[in-house]
Each structure stands twice: as structure tokens, then as C-alpha cells.
Automatic annotation (TrEMBL), chain A:
GO biological process, one term: amino acid transport
Pfam families (alphabetical): Peripla_BP_6
UniProt-recorded name of the protein: Branched-chain amino acid ABC transporter substrate-binding protein
UniProt entry keywords in alphabetical sequence: Amino-acid transport, Signal, Transport
Every Leucine-binding protein domain range: 39-387
Family as reported in the entry's similarity comment: Belongs to the leucine-binding protein family.
Signal peptide residues on this chain, from the entry's feature table: none
Key word ATP-binding present: no
InterPro entries per record: BCAA_transport, Leu-bd, Leu_Ile_Val-bd, Peripla_BP_I
TrEMBL record, chain B:
Principal location listed in the UniProt entry: membrane
Record organism: Streptomyces sporangiiformans
Protein family: Belongs to the binding-protein-dependent transport system permease family. LivHM subfamily.
A Pfam family that the UniProt record links to this protein: BPD_transp_2
Keyword Disulfide bond: no
Protein name: Branched-chain amino acid ABC transporter permease
């Protein structure tokens, strides 16, 4: 027994020593002084593995495209930009520890936000408490903006609840006898997905349109038979899916299996994905979806982005990539305006201050924010028309006319 | 109140789902019966089989059902190997506990490798008949769900026939009921246990293919399945194959019906409520086994 | 038939009516289709060395497990010195004064020999529970039992490192450490060399002389006949004969049962 | 029955060569009568004090708050696995569901703070009491039957809690998460980390102290008897069911404290991360790897696993291979060193220490094998049983 204790003690001392040495060595190399030759280091933590890895990798590509485009043009403030990306494994513990590491140990000059609302809130708190500007590409849920963060800006046109604004206006503007009378909602239990569906629900209910089904399903749901049965049984005129990708596909297929034919069907995210049509057997005609980004967007920086991104990655950017790129654009604008890029509180404060009062031109259009960091634009509405997803709302940006009622799928 | 047609629809869905649960729970029961092992990796193998079906379909375009000819023998062999090479090496005194950890680690490895090879993206087999369905007494049944149920039912019937009417089945049942006694009867219980394990894993192959027909798959999906399956085998009485099947059908149906009034998430809790109730009031399970008394 | 056997009585000699120790009435236990105990009614005598014999599979071990609460009988009543202990959990039965050994000797393999005995101490109250194990008087008592078994020099070895015979002695010491009035021994001579068998017999006699009652399940007939005062013969889950060894030895039913007639 | 010349009488057994005993003792056990030079309390106390000093001075030596957060994470792991070890180590019951108790503690603390406005640390302890109360019926269901059902219940516990905390969003916040206000508002982040580092260290010390008290108590003796042989313990009069339940509840309470302290430190709770089977599995892995029979085993395991996970993350980057690493590590521990690294390492150390004796012992071992070959049938059965039961599985550890 005594040998054991002694040994344990030895091992424990040894490991602790190792901790100290390891942490000491690693942190020794970094520097906090800015010199014109040093690159601007930007720290990011992204879910490259785990539940959010798919969009996480999209965001990573967007950031990388931004860094490349900036560096090809000579960098920012004459300095190269360098991304330091850590994998948070889609885990909130990790994302916080990653930002602690980036800010505390690696002493990065700037940070970009991670993906998914669930990870944005904890990581925004770290940035907030260290006084760092926190521009993020993917925390659209209302909760993100209720935490009292002062340094947070969402780099996309609109928060989740406003995604369907144009569609709500369109429906409520229809003559009363043509409007859908009943709506069935099914939303994934996720702040973002629920936000989109409930934003529309709130507006339609206010306009007197009845909710007949309101289902929430956990993110891991794979069998949508039960939910689809409920929706089909309600014979609702319209179905709204607060979906991400695969759950939206599954729900649509399950509804098709039950031969449910609504007059209008709107799903978030899923229909805008490139594989969507194939996944639902090309029965896509008339499906609606909000989007914050279109490759055809008529903004100066967007042409460059689409072109160079496509060259770099071999395919056109999607919304996640675009939002990441937008994040880069927003931060770059702030850096230029403040003429500095370091952890210095004064510098970070200047950037935050500037973003509060100014508009930034981005690939998703001009963005500006309210005092809580909510962007003040709106999402476009797309619809599958003639086997292609096209913008139908708002009027001034439309590529095709909205089809209503929707043909059978 | 839900309409009568919706209730009937739910019953039909419950039966279709229960069939798959029953097949998979039968597999879990086999492992427990022959080895007193709670096989956490069962559902990981289920997902592995689903991935193999999906992959074969994507690469070659063959119907996923055809992959059964490969996966079933493969999984059978893997089951025998797993029993032989891993589980028999554990100390008998701590077998039950340590085997849980060992199979848990196998599940982690499978999940990690699936994620490594196929990434975490959700996958779904796209078939011509994916969205096809037909009317049945006012309920609408999806073709793929019916095929999946048919496979599960056939596999269960096959298993039942094997256990009831073959010599191997007799040896298997004897081993499950009383290992020492079976040994006295001259049964090579080690070999029988190996084959029992193989059979159990073969049910995962069938179940995985059935699952791939109709739902999305992703590497960590197995956690979603193992809970309900474990609840089923306890409610059914650990070690009783018919008990597991009955419990599976009952709970599958209950889950489906509860979804009418509760949300999807709450409806899932039925499995765990049944599990706790069983252990608190009737630890030997409802439909089977004396085995549970000592385990 | 068997009832007659059960009432065979104390046999010849002018002994006073013995006080009952452990007794069962109509004990039934079935495993699936197999009836292990078939309405077993039997009484053992307090202060004596009792033996329970019978062919393999006659239900002796099941009987042990039932009376010690390890498994629950399907029907029937179990009493110990008049107190009903039917359905009581094993530790209550142990605390009622019944200690037992197991068929294939069971010790705590990864505990030291001394700890094996200290684990049999029954503390009471929160303070007693949290007090350090191995108070001096307990340790002294444990050592004296070990000394009596002749294995006191091994007190710091782990039990699994002992030889089979040493483990048998250790198990017995552990049972005795819990101070039972009635000691149930399941095949104490199983797999033990003859010299050690003699030692165990001697111990049983000594301990019996000190007032402990014994109930022994054993296949070794010489041992049973030389050691016990009262023998019960089981066949197919019920007693077919009981009485002093001399009577049992000449009982035809017993021979029949053993020879499988 | 062939006679054995060596063990005719207990007296004969008593004269067993000491070398045989020490051989069989195989390392952890000293030969009777041997008193090594380093024995005694003083050196041990010295080592303990040194460790404590290192642990306590760590925050002031850390170059940035990040290192302190790493320290907190490891301390948190250590508290969790030590808490787990109340059940796993003493009784041998493997719970994969302790992540559930940690989550309950975290949410309990968070909800008490936000809903009832209890002071944070009062909420922490109230939550622990509540979790202990929840653990009673759970333990009642789980411990009534042995082994397999216990594991199943422990896994089911996490899964059901996840479902409930996700579904009951009006109360728990559901997937929107729960924000736990900081217990020390206005404290700078670095200072906040430092404070919690010491709080976690204190909690670890408390958990270790209670484990130690139980370990040397009569209660602990009963628990260990359950681990060794539950039937036997019961037949000796140990109320095994009550014992298991009590220690299960104690374990749940400590796990809850760890979870609650984590909630106060971290601030953001999400059911998916709080009620994760994986976190429960890591507790098992850490305790098992370090050695469940030892006071410091889980702590050591926490340090090793914490490193291994970090290493695999750095090494394998953005792939899920860290799961494979964890899985393989668990598998290796279960198969080859179920007693953990401490006994394995001690055995190794012993081999070095006693090189002089080794040759003698080997001779004895060979002789012994020869002698065993001549023994009677029962002895042989037993020996084969022993080797068949995995006692010889590799790595020089005497499993």
C-alpha cells in the first residue's frame, strides 16, 4: 500500500510539473507588440467535428476565402492576415476554452465568431469579458441579443425571427378569400430553426391565420412519420418547417409519403442547399425558403467573392460561406476605420464604437446594426420554380413570380 | 381530440416502428442470454450496417436490400469474433460490468471511424420509391416503412424458427436458460455463445438496412437507439426473446400514440418511464425471464 | 413415504427431545420447469452437529440458499428457533445468528486475510459505521480466529493468494467472526486433503462443544457419519429420511436414493 | 486423492515458504514482517504537502488565464471522477450515468439562482441536497437488481434527463439554454478563473477526504466486501442494498456539487452538453485508468485523460478520431489493466526495486508450477480457473 501512495504522489507531482512546463513553454513564444511586419492574427473556434461540423466547415471555407482575398490584395493596414482556427467539436465547453486560449495564451489580435447559436452565446461572453469585438456569422436566434452583449454584431441581413418578413407581408396582403386559413408549424428544437418558424407564426397569427399544428422535434429526430401524420391529418393550407437541412428533407419526404398537399410550403435552410432537389426526389416545385444570400446578389464585393471563391474551392459559395465572408468584411471595415488591430482595449473599443454608427458594404448587401447587435435588413424569399430555386420576394429583387397555390408534390 | 383516422394512422405507424424495435431488441436479448452481456455497441453496429447499405447504394446504385447478402454474414462473423476475441477474455467475476465498458468502447470506435470516413453529414438513401405510399383502411402507409417492417418480421420469424426447431436453437435456448446445465448435457456452450453473439449482430445488419431505407443516418445516431432498446429488453424481462418482442411492439405503439397528445420529445420518455417502473415494481420484467432476478 | 421418513424420530437412546434450531415447513422452489425443493419439511436440532446429505441435484444447495435468504422460496415457511425468517433478506438472517459458507469456497479475493475477517464485523449507528475499521479489539478477535485456523501468519496476504485449503479455513474464520449461533457449511471437505479434513472436523467438534450449532452439507460419508448427531437425507427436493447416523446408514431408502434405484 | 507432501496440516501450510507468499502477493503487498526504510507517515505527508503546494501555487505561476481554465477543467474532471469512484471504486458498480447527476447539479444550481434568487453558493448546496434526494429513487430502481440493470438504468438516466430538460423548455430554457448569473459580479475574468480554481481545488479536497474516511471505515469495509462478493457480504450480515444506496447517494451529491460549481463558473448551460453519456463515460475512463481502488487513482486518471484528449485534438485536428482514441483507451484499460495504471506501475516499479530477488522468485515460481502439476484434481481446476479468468492478462500488472 505504501509503495502505491508514494508512487501516486510522484506521478501527481510529475504531471503537475508537466502542466506547468508545458503551459509555460507554449505561451513563451507569443508577443503582444504590434509591428508592421507581423501578421494580424485572427482567432476563430469552429465546430469542425461533431453535430455542427457540416456548416462549421462551410464557415471555415468562408473565412479562408476572405483571408486569401485580403492577403492577395496586400493585407489589412499593410499587414497580412493570418487565421488561427481551433476545433471546438461542437461542444460549448470547448468553444469557451478555445477562445480563452486564443485571447489569453495565443494573444490573437482579433477574433471571429463560431457557428451555431448554442456556441455563440458562451463564446461571445468570453470575448465580451476580455473587451474584444465579436462579429459572428451564425447566431441569429433572439436569445443571442438578449444577453446584454455590447461587443457583438451579427454579420447577416436579419435575425432568425425576421427571416420570413417578406413572406408574411405577401400573405397578409392577399385577399381574404385567397389567403391560407390554417397553418401547421414543425420546428427543430434549436434556437435558430425555431426562431425562423416562430417569427412567421407570430406575424400570421396576428393577421388572423389559425395555427392548427405546432410541433417541436429534437435535433436527432430521424423518423418524421408521427409528425407528418399530424400535419396531414390537420389538412392545413400551409406548412412551415423551422428546419435545418436533413430534418427538412425528412419531413418533406414523410409528408409526400402521406400524400399531403398544402397550398403553400415554406422551410428554412433545407431548400437552399444544393443537394436538396435530389434528396426529395425532385418534387420541389413551389417550396419556399428564406435566404440571406444569393450568388447573384448585385453587390460589388459579391462578384469578386463568388468568382474567387469558386476558383479556390471549385464550387460556388452558399449562405454559411457568405456569412463567414461577411464577418471578415465587417471586421476589416472596423479595423480600417479604427486604424488598428490589437487586443488593446482602446483599439477594440474604437472598432465597436465605429460599427455602432456605420453601415458596412458586404456580399449580402449593406449592413447596419441596432444597439444590441441585431442587423437591420431582411431576408429574401426564394421559391423552387421550374426546377430551380429563384428569388420571388421582395418585388425589387425578384427573379420569378411567386407561385401560389403551390402545385402538387 | 385527435380524429379516429389519425389514431389509426398512429397505430399503423406504431406497429411498423415496433417491428424494427422488436428485431433489434431480440438481438440485444440474445447477447444478454448467452453471455450476460449488455451490448452497448449493438446500435452502433446497426448504424454501421445502415452506412454500408447507403454507401453501396451510392457507389454502385444497387438496391440497399441486396447489401444484406454481404452484411449479414459479415456481421455474424464479426459477432463471433467479438465474443471470441474480446468478451471471453474478461474476468467472469466482473464480466457484466466490464463488458458494458468494452462494448461501449467499441461503439465509440465505430462512431469515430464512421465520422472519420463518411464525415458527420446526415445521409439518406434516395430511392425511386422513397415517397411512395398506399392507402390501407384509411391510413396511409409508406412503401419503405412496410418493406422495413417486412424485413424485421421475416428476420424475427426466422430467428424464432431457428430457436424453436433446430438443434442449434435448442442448444442456444439451453445455454440461455442455464449455462452449467447445458454444459452437463454436453453442449459446447462457448461455441453456442459465440454463434448467439453472431446471430445478435446479424439482427443489427438486417435492422440497419431496414433503418437506412427510411431515415437519415449519421454517426452519433446510435445513442438515439440504444436507450429505447435497453429499456425494451428490461421491460420484456432480460433474456427473453418473445418478451423483448412483445415489449417492443407495446412500447413502439405507445410512443406513436403518445405523440398525438404530447410532443415528440416527451413521447420518447415512455421507454424510460416503463424502464423505471419495471425495475421498481417488477424487476424480473413483464413478459419473461427469471434471469433478471440475479442480474 | 417421505413424510414417514421425516418423522423417523430421534432414534434409539434416551436423549431428551432436542430443541429445534432451523426448521422449514413445506418449502417449495422451482426453477422454470425443474422443482428443486418439493415441499421440504425438515427440522434441525439446536446445539448439535446436523448434516444434510443427498445425491447430486437433490436440492441441498437450493435449500441452503433458501434458508439463508439468497433466493426466495415459492412457498413454505422457514423458522429459526421459533422465529419466522421466511422472506427475510440475507443480512437479516445473518444477523439473526445464521452464518454460512459456500459450496465453492468464497472469500473476498482482493482483500487481505485480516480484512476478510474485519468485513464480517457488523457496526451499528452512524458513528460505528464511519469509525475506522480494525479497532484493536476487533483485530484481536480476528487474529485469534486466524490463529485458531492456523493461518495467522498470512493476515496481510490477499485472500486470492492463499491455497485452496487456506481459503477454506479463511472462509470458516470469516463466518465465525460474525459470531453465528448456527453455522451452515456447504461441503466443508470439498477438494480438501485428508489431513485438513481431519483438522476441520476437529474444529467443528470444538466449536460445537463451545455451543455452536452446525448444519453441514457434505458428500464425504465418513465425515458425515463420524461428525454429526443428526442426519437428514434429501432426494428430489424433499427429505426422505432423518435420524442419527447409525439409523441413516442402514436405511434402505437412502441407499436407494444414492444408488439411483 | 494424491497426497500433497507440502500441505498436510494447517501447521504445514503455516510453514509455507515466505517466498511463495510474496510471489503470490505480486507487488502491492509487502511480505509479512518486512519494514521498508521509507515506511512511516512522514514521507507520505511530505509528498502530500508538496502536491498541495504545487496545486495551490499553480494559478500564480500560470502565464495567462487560459492555463488556469485548463487547470479548472482538469480539477473538474478530477472531482467528477472521484465522485464517480464512490460507487465505482467501493462497490464495483459501473455507472455510465453520472453525467446526468452533474447536469442535474448544474441545472439545479442555475435554476435555483435564477428562479428563487437564492444566493449562488446556497443554491449550490441546495441543489446537491435535491440531487441526492433524486438519487434515492433512482438508486432504489437501479440497485434492487444486480449488475446489468444498474448499467442500463444509469444510461437511461442521462437519456431521460436530456429529453426532459430539452422538452420542458418553459422551465429549463430547453435548447435556448440557461444563463447562470456570475456569483461574483464585477470580478474580472482572470480573477474569476482564479477564484474558481481554488473552489474546485477545495471541492476536490473535500471529495478526497470523504472518500478516504469511507475507505478506512467499517462502512467502507462493507462496501469493498460488496465489490468482492456481494452474496458473501450479505451472508455475513452486511445490509448490501442499504450500503449501496447510501454510497450511491453520496456519490450523486458530490457529482452534483461538481456540476453546480461548474455551472457557477461557466455560466451557460445547454441540455445537450450537460446530459451527455460521453461525459459519464469519461468519468469511468478516468477513474478506471487511474485505478478505482486508490484514493488518488481518479485524480491521476483525470490528468492523463485530460492530456490524452487534448493531445488527440491537436494531433488529429478536425476529425472525430478523438472518439476512436477515447474508445481504444477505454478498451485497452478494460482488457489489460482493469485495476488502472497505479497497480500496473507499482508492479513495474517493484520489479525494478527487487531485481535481486527476482531470480530467486522465478525459481520458486518454477518449482511451484512443478509442484502444482502434481497436485490433486481440485487444485488443478482451480489453477486453470485462475489463469483462465484473466489473471495473467499482460502488461505485468497483476490483475
Amino acid at each position: 500500500m505504501r509503495t502505491t501512495h508514494r508512487l501516486q504522489g510522484g506521478i501527481t507531482v510529475g504531471t503537475l510539473a508537466l502542466v506547468l512546463v508545458a503551459s509555460g513553454c507554449v505561451s513563451g513564444g507569443s508577443n503582444s507588440e504590434d509591428s508592421p511586419d507581423d501578421p494580424i492574427v485572427i482567432g476563430v473556434s469552429l465546430p469542425l467535428t461533431g453535430d455542427f461540423s457540416e456548416p462549421g466547415k462551410g464557415v471555415e471555407r468562408g473565412y479562408k476565402a476572405w483571408a486569401k482575398i485580403v492577403n492577395d490584395k496586400g493585407g489589412l493596414l499593410g499587414r497580412k492576415v493570418e487565421l488561427k482556427i481551433l476545433d471546438d467539436q461542437s461542444n460549448a465547453d470547448r468553444v469557451v476554452s478555445d477562445y480563452e486560449q486564443l485571447i489569453g495564451k495565443d494573444e490573437v489580435d482579433l477574433v471571429f465568431g463560431p457557428f451555431s447559436t448554442r456556441l455563440v452565446v458562451p463564446s461571445a461572453r468570453v470575448a465580451e469579458e476580455y473587451g474584444m469585438l465579436f462579429v459572428e456569422p451564425a447566431g441569429a436566434a433572439p436569445e443571442v441579443f438578449d444577453q446584454g452583449f455590447k461587443n457583438l454584431f451579427y454579420a447577416a441581413p436579419a435575425v432568425a425571427n425576421d427571416h420570413y418578413n417578406h413572406l408574411a407581408e405577401y400573405i397578409l396582403a392577399l385577399p381574404a378569400d385567397k389567403r391560407p386559413r390554417t397553418v401547421a408549424y414543425a420546428a427543430m428544437d434549436d434556437p435558430f430553426a425555431q426562431g425562423t418558424a416562430y417569427g412567421l407564426k407570430e406575424k400570421l397569427e396576428k393577421g388572423g391565420i389559425k395555427t392548427v399544428v405546432n410541433e417541436v422535434y429534437p435535433p436527432n429526430t430521424t423518423d418524421f412519420g408521427g409528425i407528418a401524420a399530424k400535419i396531414a391529418d390537420s389538412k392545413a393550407d400551409m406548412v412551415v418547417g423551422g428546419s435545418q437541412y436533413q430534418d427538412g428533407v425528412n419531413l418533406i419526404v414523410a409528408l409526400q409519403q402521406l400524400n399531403y398537399q398544402p397550398k403553400m410550403a415554406a422551410f428554412s435552410t433545407a431548400p437552399t442547399e444544393p443537394e436538396f432537389a435530389k434528396a426529395v426526389g425532385n418534387k420541389t416545385e413551389g417550396i419556399l425558403a428564406p435566404t440571406g444570400y444569393t450568388q447573384k446578389g448585385d453587390y460589388p464585393s459579391n462578384k469578386e467573392f463568388v468568382e474567387k471563391y469558386t476558383k479556390q474551392f471549385g464550387k460556388a459559395p452558399e449562405e454559411d460561406e457568405a456569412n463567414a465572408y461577411t464577418t471578415g468584411q465587417v471586421v476589416a471595415a472596423a479595423v480600417k476605420a479604427a486604424d488598428c488591430a490589437s487586443q488593446d482595449p482602446e483599439c477594440q473599443g474604437k472598432m465597436v464604437e465605429w460599427l455602432r454608427g456605420h453601415q458596412v458594404e458586404t456580399v449580402v448587401g449593406p449592413l447596419k446594426w441596432d444597439d444590441k447587435g441585431r442587423p437591420q435588413s431582411a431576408h429574401m424569399i426564394q421559391q423552387w420554380v421550374d426546377g430551380e430555386i429563384q428569388i420571388v420576394l421582395p418585388e425589387q429583387q425578384k427573379e420569378a413570380d411567386l407561385i401560389y397555390p403551390k402545385p402538387e408534390w | 381530440m385527435p380524429s379516429a383516422s389519425l389514431v389509426f394512422q398512429s397505430v399503423v405507424l406504431g406497429v411498423l416502428l415496433g417491428g424494427l424495435y422488436a428485431l433489434l431488441a431480440a438481438g440485444l436479448t440474445l447477447y444478454f442470454g448467452v453471455m450476460r452481456v449488455v451490448m452497448i455497441a449493438h446500435s452502433a453496429f446497426l448504424i454501421l450496417a445502415a452506412y454500408l447499405a447507403w454507401y453501396a447504394h451510392r457507389e454502385t446504385g444497387v438496391d440497399p436490400l441486396l447489401t444484406l447478402f454481404v452484411t449479414v454474414p459479415l456481421f455474424f462473423a464479426a459477432g463471433v469474433a467479438m465474443q471470441r476475441l474480446l468478451l471471453t477474455r474478461l474476468r467472469p467475476a466482473t464480466l457484466t460490468m466490464m463488458s458494458v465498458l468494452l462494448t461501449f468502447s467499441v461503439a465509440l470506435v465505430i462512431e469515430g471511424l464512421l465520422g472519420y470516413v463518411f464525415s458527420g453529414t446526415q445521409r439518406r438513401i434516395r430511392l425511386d420509391y422513397s415517397s411512395a405510399g398506399f392507402e390501407f383502411l384509411g391510413a396511409r402507409i409508406a412503401a419503405v416503412k412496410l418493406i422495413a417492417f417486412g424485413m424485421a418480421a421475416l428476420a424475427l420469424l426466422g430467428l424464432y424458427a431457428l430457436m424453436k426447431h433446430s438443434r442449434f436453437g435448442q442448444a442456444l435456448r439451453a445455454t440461455i436458460q442455464h449455462r452449467e446445465a447445458a454444459q452437463l448435457l454436453g453442449i459446447d456452450t462457448d461455441r453456442v455463445a459465440g454463434y448467439g453473439f453472431g446471430l445478435g449482430l446479424a439482427t443489427a445488419a438486417v435492422g440497419g438496412t431496414a433503418l437506412a431505407l427510411d431515415t437519415t443516418i449519421y454517426p452519433s445516431l446510435h445513442w438515439h437507439w440504444i436507450g429505447p432498446l435497453m429499456a425494451i429488453i428490461v421491460v420484456g424481462g432480460l433474456g427473453s426473446v418473445p418478451g423483448a418482442a412483445i415489449a417492443a411492439m407495446t412500447l413502439g405503439m405507445l410512443q406513436s400514440l403518445l405523440q398525438l397528445e404530447l410532443s415528440t420529445t416527451w413521447a420518447q420518455t415512455v421507454f424510460y418511464v416503463a424502464l423505471f417502473a419495471t425495475l421498481a415494481f417488477r424487476p424480473q420484467g413483464f413478459f419473461g425471464g427469471r434471469l433478471a432476478q440475479r442480474f | 413415504m417421505s413424510e414417514a421418513g421425516a418423522e423417523a424420530g430421534p432414534g434409539p437412546g434416551a436423549r431428551p427431545e432436542p430443541e429445534p434450531s432451523l426448521a422449514t415447513v413445506g418449502l417449495i422452489k422451482a426453477f422454470g420447469g425443474v422443482t428443486a425443493l418439493d415441499s421440504a419439511t425438515v427440522t434441525f436440532h439446536h446445539g448439535k452437529v446436523n448434516a444434510l446429505i443427498g445425491p447430486n441435484g437433490s436440492g441441498k444447495t437450493t435449500f441452503f440458499n433458501c434458508v439463508t435468504g439468497m433466493i426466495r422460496a415459492d412457498a413454505g415457511r422457514i423458522t429459526y428457533r421459533g422465529r419466522d425468517i421466511t422472506g427475510k433478506p440475507p443480512h437479516r438472517i445473518a444477523r439473526a445468528g445464521i452464518g454460512r459458507s459456500f459450496q465453492l469456497c468464497r472469500v473476498f479475493p482482493r482483500m487481505t486475510v485480516l480484512d476478510n475477517l474485519l468485513a464480517a464485523v457488523r457496526p451499528s449507528g452512524l458513528a460505528g459505521q464511519l469509525a475506522g475499521a480494525g479497532k484493536r479489539e476487533e483485530t484481536e478477535r480476528a487474529r485469534s480466529w486466524l490463529a485458531r485456523m492456523g493461518i495467522e501468519h498470512l493476515e496481510r496476504a490477499e485472500a486470492r493468494q492463499l491455497s485452496w485449503g487456506q481459503q477454506k479455513l479463511l472462509e470458516l474464520a470469516g463466518v465465525l467472526m460474525s459470531e453465528p449461533e448456527l453455522v451452515l457449511l456447504d461441503e466443508p471437505a470439498g477438494g480438501v486433503n485428508p489431513a485438513l479434513i481431519d483438522r476441520i472436523c476437529e474444529l467443528v467438534r470444538e466449536l460445537n462443544a463451545e455451543g455452536r450449532t452446525f448444519l453441514i452439507v457434505e458428500h464425504n460419508m465418513d465425515l458425515v457419519m463420524s461428525l454429526s448427531d443428526h442426519v437428514v437425507v434429501f432426494d428430489r427436493g424433499r427429505p426422505i429420511a432423518q435420524g442419527p447416523p447409525s439409523v441413516i446408514q442402514s436405511d434402505e431408502r437412502v441407499l436407494g436414493a444414492y444408488l439411483g434405484v | 486423492m494424491p497426497r500433497d507432501s507440502e500441505a498436510p496440516l494447517p501447521a504445514g501450510e503455516a510453514s509455507l515458504p515466505a517466498s511463495e507468499v510474496s510471489l503470490r502477493a505480486g507487488g502491492t503487498q509487502l511480505r509479512a514482517g518486512e519494514t521498508p526504510f521509507w515506511a512511516g507517515r512522514l514521507p507520505r505527508l511530505g509528498i502530500l504537502l508538496a502536491v498541495v503546494a504545487v496545486v495551490l501555487s499553480f494559478p500564480s505561476m500560470a502565464p495567462s488565464p487560459y492555463e488556469i481554465t485548463v487547470g479548472i477543467a482538469i480539477l473538474n474532471y478530477a472531482v467528477l471522477s472521484t465522485s464517480w469512484n464512490f460507487v465505482g471504486g467501493f462497490t464495483g458498480y459501473i455507472s455510465l450515468g453520472h453525467g446526468g447527476f452533474a447536469g442535474l447539479g448544474a441545472y439545479g444550481t442555475g435554476l435555483l439562482v435564477t428562479k428563487t434568487e437564492l444566493p449562488p453558493f446556497a443554491a449550490l448546496f441546495t441543489a446537491a441536497v435535491l440531487v441526492a434526494a433524486v438519487a434515492v429513487p433512482v438508486g432504489y430502481a437501479a440497485l434492487r437488481v444486480r449488475g446489468a440493470s444498474f448499467v442500463i438504468v444509469s444510461i437511461a438516466l442521462v437519456l431521460i434527463l436530456l429529453l426532459v430538460f430539452q422538452s420542458w423548455s418553459s422551465f429549463t430554457g430547453g435548447s435556448r439554454g440557461l444563463v447562470v448569473p456570475r456569483p461574483f459580479p464585477g470580478m474580472l475574468r482572470a480573477e474569476h478563473h482564479r477564484t474558481f480554481y481554488f473552489l474546485f481545488a477545495a471541492l476536490l479536497a473535500a471529495a478526497l477526504l470523504v472518500w478516504w474516511i469511507i475507505d478506512r471505515s467499517r462502512f467502507g469495509m462493507g462496501l469493498k466486501a460488496i465489490r468482492e462478493d456481494e452474496d458473501k457480504a450479505q451472508s455475513l450480515g452486511t445490509p448490501t442494498y442499504t450500503y449501496k444506496l447510501v454510497v450511491f447517494v453520496v456519490s450523486a451529491a458530490f457529482t452534483s456539487l461538481a456540476g453546480g460549481l461548474y455551472a457557477l463558473w461557466f455560466g451557460d448551460l445547454d441540455p445537450v452538453f450537460q446530459f451527455s453519456i460521453l461525459s459519464g463515460a469519461y468519468m469511468v475512463l478516468m477513474a478506471l485508468l487511474g485505478g478505482v481502488r486508490h484514493l488518488y487513482g481518479p485524480v491521476l486518471g483525470a490528468v492523463i485523460v485530460g492530456y490524452a484528449l487534448e493531445y488527440s485534438k491537436v494531433e488529429f485536428g478536425d476529425t472525430p478520431l478523438h472518439l476512436v482514441v477515447a474508445g481504444l483507451l477505454l478498451g485497452v484499460v478494460v482488457m489489460f489493466m482493469p485495476d488502472g495504471v497505479i497497480p500496473a506501475a507499482t508492479a513495474l516499479l517493484d520489479r525494478f526495486r527487487k531485481t535481486g530477488e527476482t531470480s530467486i522468485r522465478e525459481v520458486t515460481a518454477a518449482e511451484l508450477r512443478e509442484r502444482r502439476g502434481q497436485r490433486n484434481g481440485t487444485e488443478e481446476v482451480r489453477d486453470s480457473e485462475r489463469s483462465g479468468s484473466g489473471s495473467g492478462t499482460g502488461t505485468g500488472s497483476q490483475t
